[in-house]
């Protein structure tokens, strides 16, 4: 039996390392799934009553890519809910490079988080020059780099810009104090096997 009261969106909770809930992020692959879809999202155990939006989340992260990003950039004033002060718009590196000038035009009115920190071929100047209010590390990027001498300095450079640094991973592998020492401010519990923007 279908329960049409379920929100079709998938949310991932963002927490501080003391466990405090600080926000939620929608997962882009399911942003526009149809109620009539044959895909069984419940089969992945990612749609459930406890997965609904908290009453007053500190942050709401909305991924924008592809046609969603294009529509937003053409008419950024249309969706007034994106102007809320607790809303952050998530983009990936490919969209940052491809639409840099358009994104810069709206960056004074909207707050952006980068969800794809360092794919192959990354030019750090592109990231450093954009006014991100948050950067989200993948588990793979974190695991490949956190023992490197330069890693805490990289993360500190984001914190100096007052950008949140969040780890997106299915589970935490290190003690919470270790993440704080590395200037990671929180954890987004990854609830699907895919990257945020992959469909």
Structure explained in plain terms:
With 199 residues, this protein is α/β, with parallel strands linked by helices. 26% of the residues lie in helices and 20% in strands. An eight-stranded mixed beta barrel has the order 1-2-3-4-5-6-7-8. Strand 1 and strand 2 form a beta hairpin.
Short description:
This protein is of the alpha/beta class and 199 residues long.
Ends: how far apart?
26 Å
CATH fold annotation: TIM Barrel
Please give the count of helices. Answer: 7
Enumerate the strands of the largest sheet in spatial order, edge to edge or round the barrel: 1-2-3-4-5-6-7-8
Low-pLDDT segments, ≥5 res = 1-8, 32-52
Query: How confident overall, as mean pLDDT?
Result: 81
Rough outline: globular
* Main beta sheet strand tally, sense and closure: 8 strands, mixed, barrel
Quick one: CATH superfamily?
EAL domain
- What is the second-level CATH architecture? Alpha-Beta Barrel
What fraction of residues sit in β-strands?
Answer: 15-25%
Strand segment count: 8
Indicate the structural class: alpha/beta
Features:
7 helices; disordered N terminus; globular; alpha/beta; single chain; 199 residues; TIM Barrel; 26% helix; 8 strands
Topology diagram in text:
Blueprint: E1 11-15, E2 21-26, E3 59-63, H1 66-74, E4 87-91, H2 93-98, H3 100-106, E5 112-114, H4 124-129, E6 134-138, H5 139-145, H6 151-160, E7 164-169, H7 176-181, E8 186-189
Parallel strand pairs: 2-3, 3-4, 4-5, 5-6, 6-7, 7-8
Antiparallel strand pairs: 1-2, 1-8
């Amino acid at each position: 039996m279908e329960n049409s009261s379920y929100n079709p969106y998938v949310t991932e909770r963002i927490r501080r390392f003391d466990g405090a809930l600080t926000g939620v992020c929608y997962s882009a692959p399911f942003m526009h799934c149809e109620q009539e879809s044959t895909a069984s999202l419940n089969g992945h155990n990612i749609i459930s009553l406890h997965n609904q939006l908290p009453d007053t989340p500190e942050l709401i992260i909305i991924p924008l890519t592809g046609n969603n990003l294009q529509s937003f950039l053409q008419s950024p004033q249309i969706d007034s809910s994106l102007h809320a002060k607790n809303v952050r718009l998530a983009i990936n590196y490919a969209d940052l490079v491809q639409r840099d000038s358009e994104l810069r035009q709206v960056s004074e009115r909207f707050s952006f988080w980068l969800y794809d920190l360092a794919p192959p071929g990354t030019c750090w100047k592109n990231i450093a020059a954009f006014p991100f209010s948050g950067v989200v590390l993948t588990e793979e990027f974190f695991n490949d780099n956190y023992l490197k001498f330069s890693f805490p300095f990289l993360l500190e450079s984001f914190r100096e810009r007052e950008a949140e640094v969040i780890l997106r991973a299915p589970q935490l592998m290190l003690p919470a104090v270790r993440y704080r020492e590395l200037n990671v401010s929180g954890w987004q519990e990854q609830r699907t096997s895919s990257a945020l923007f992959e469909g």
